[in-house]
Design brief:
By secondary structure, this protein is mostly helical. 84% of the residues lie in helices and 0% in strands. The chain is elongated, with a radius of gyration of 15 Å.
Length: 119
């Protein structure tokens, strides 16, 4: 149960990131969230929209894992998509901003543990 809750929360987080990157990148909420200037946001808007789309794919995969049957397939999907979130979080943390490790990678690790321990 905890694993499913964590997966759901991580999926919602990635939908939120999708909205920030695809639709609010150059708006006050997006500028604040990513500590961007309006000038930098204008230059990087298309790149951010692409990143947002990828976050949407991660969210879709996590949601799919919550709906999939049989359970063995659901766990395999969860492992794959949580692994993708983990790698993205670690990469982002080491290359862009260390807080990404705590926002993306740590929750993914906790969810992976919970899913695979069936808690």
């Amino acid at each position: 149960m905890i694993g499913y809750i964590l997966i759901g929360l991580i999926a919602v987080l990635h939908i939120y990131i999708l909205v920030l990157e695809m639709f609010l990148w150059d708006k006050p909420a997006g500028l604040k969230a990513f500590a961007n200037s309006p000038e930098k946001a204008k230059i990087t808007k298309v790149m951010a929209q692409n990143q947002g789309l990828y976050n949407g794919f991660l969210a879709a995969g996590l949601i799919w894992s919550l709906c999939a049957i049989p359970e063995s397939f659901s766990v395999a999907l969860a492992n794959f998509f949580l692994g993708c979130v983990l790698v993205a979080g670690l990469y982002g943390g080491f290359t862009a901003n260390k807080k990404i490790i705590f926002i993306q990678a740590v929750p993914a690790i906790l969810a992976l543990i919970a899913v695979n321990l069936h808690i």
